[in-house]
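I am writing to request your help with a piece of structural work I have in hand. What I wish to show you is a protein chain and, alongside it, a tokenised description of its three-dimensional fold. Could you please explain, in whatever detail you think fit, how the structure tokens follow from the sequence? You will find the record immediately after this paragraph.
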Amino acid sequence: MLIHQRTLQKEVSLRGTGLHTGKECRITFKPAPVNYGYRFIRSDIENSPEIPALIDNVVDVLRGTTIGINGVNVHTTEHVLAALYGLQIDNCSIEMSGPEPPVMDGSSLPFAEALLSAGIAKQDEPKNYLVIDETVEFHDTVNTVDIVALPLDSFRVTVMVDYKNPALGSQHSGLFDLEKEFLKDFAPSRTFCFLSEVETLANQGIIKGGDIDNAVVIVDKSMNNEELQSLAGKLDLEHDHLAIGENGILNNRALRFQNEPARHKLLDLLGDIALLGMPLRAQVLAARPGHASNVEFVKQLKKYADRNKLARQYQHEKKAGVIFDINAIQNILPHRYPFLLIDKIVEFKLDEKIVSIKNVTMNEPFFQGHFPGNPVMPGVLIIEAMAQTGGIMMLNGTENIQEMLVYFMGIDKARFRKPVLPGDTLVIEAVMTNKRRSVCQFDAKAYVRGELVCEASLMATVMPKTK
């Protein structure tokens, strides 16, 4: 895999009509500095507002992925981003004179060819890969969508589609090497839709720039001449331009690949993965993906990346089954002997859940007085161990973590079920229940040998240290 970040050698432009908005747009790709990422610039709006192509900026996923900030949007970003991501270009400024990139032929190939014509320049800074070392997954049981990322020291994507429609049937496709396969095997695959959808989309004003030259229309219903004439009118086409194809495609258009729809779904997935903001090292398996599910999957990747950002910063030695060891914990929390009451973090889902381990030994200083001859861990210290566990979850992603402290604001519903004795191992699970700005609430439970020994609801806030 490539090591260094890449950008363009010079700028290059294309012009055309947006698929959904129907508006003319000139799109210009420009070189950008290291760590810039992909940023769209709306030159047609006063002060040329900038919209970074990041998952947090997604505002709509209806028939495409739209990003925006403060009401300024860029529609249908996926084909442009797929071209950049597929060519492994890391930094690019994308200037647009309209709200939507031109649809061109409905694929990423025109964008990819333009980018290659501009030349690719290697930069001094290394790429910041997100390396997946555990399963990250998204499941939508209602729409039977499953997308998972599995550990792999390279990048591969496999997609399966099944529309339960005889006009399309089940298809699958796989990309195993971006450098060798993207440009010739996936960039040319065009967007597609079913004939039964076209009239509805036209009535909704969603495909104002659509025509038979920039989309593959799969015939899944019969239409008479009158219906064809009506549809042609709605699409601003002449009647004799439309015909029910004998090969299952409107106007008998030939597919570029036998499984072109599956390949285009893979292309869309690449464009949406680009919103992660960093290249990925993983095996991605996707069943029946779409923009809505792609975005939710990338959000899961973002949570994983944010969690690992803290791990990369403080956990310098990789250990099986350990997210943070005691050395990393001491770099995150200010607590020290005798008040550091957790030994390691073994599970961490950003803003959702964290699990810590506390090994309780007879050497604990509190056993000397609590109680002589009958040592029992004080309940208030179990609560404190819960608080420290939740504190790590709250501090994740906080800038200047060494200058911040977690202050607890409330303890509710505390219950002590069984005593904790020397030799016990406390497993503490904290689950986030509410988060507003710097204030969080979470429910914590402590177990010994699988039995609940303590539970409580806690509230805390993150504040700067007092000078």
